Amino acid sequence: MRLVVPGWGGINWVKWISRMTLISHESDSIYNQQNYVLYDESGAAYGKVRELAVKSLLTSHSDGAVLQAGSHQLCGVAWSAACGIAKVEISCDGGTSWAEAQLLHDLGPRSWRRFVYTWQAQPGRHEILLRATDLHGAMQPPAARFNQKGYLMNAVQRVMLEVQDAG
């Protein structure tokens, strides 16, 4: 059996449960006290891995992909810990301008939300940026707060695409 904790990172989803004891304080296990802890550049702890931060990912195209000029569907997923996604914005010019993607079916506040955006790709190199905003107004930051183990990295995703002339 696995304990699923909605809105929390999968590392908190305990597996191989054979018994359960409820306690009134935080666990003193090595996982809780050392392994899933957020450490800054100097090694000082500043938090623990708990709720997922708002994040979006492009799933339709890989970084460095080469496309032909013309219409392309940019697709992906977005999520937030407990409140759902309000919008996903896409920039096809490195962040100069942003357009809102179409959100697909809402499966609930703790579900991934699929999105799609139709892009009229012109020849050249394009830096595609994605950012999601949740229903509480939290938005993906341009850069995530550093932590030594790389947990909860939710910075705006950047994907480089090369578009070639269709002719």
Describe the structure.
With 167 residues, the protein is mostly beta strands. The chain has two domains: 10-48, no CATH class; 55-164, Sandwich (Immunoglobulin-like). 4% of the residues lie in helices and 38% in strands. The protein has one helix at residues 30-35; strands at 37-39, 45-48, 55-58, 66-68, 70-79, 85-91, 99-100, 102-103, 113-121, 124-134, 157-164. The strands form three sheets. It has a five-stranded mixed β-sheet with strand order 4-11-10-6-7, with no helix packed on it. Strands 3-5-9-8 form a four-stranded antiparallel β-sheet, with no helix packed on it. It has a two-stranded antiparallel ribbon with strand order 1-2. The mean pLDDT is 90.
Instruction: List unreliable stretches of 5+ residues.
Output: none
Tell me the series of helices and strands, N- to C-terminal: HEEEEEEEEEEE
Percent in helix: under 10%
Numbering strands along the chain, what is their spatial order in the largest sheet? 4-11-10-6-7
Largest sheet: 5 strands, mixed
The assigned structural class equals mainly beta
Radius of gyration over C-alpha positions, nearest whole angstrom: 19 Å
Keywords:
four-stranded antiparallel beta sheet; Immunoglobulin-like; 167 residues; 11 strands; five-stranded mixed beta sheet
Summarize the SSE layout with pairings.
Elements: H1 30-35, E1 37-39, E2 45-48, E3 55-58, E4 66-68, E5 70-79, E6 85-91, E7 99-100, E8 102-103, E9 113-121, E10 124-134, E11 157-164
Parallel strand pairs: 4-11
Antiparallel strand pairs: 1-2, 3-5, 5-9, 6-7, 6-10, 8-9, 10-11
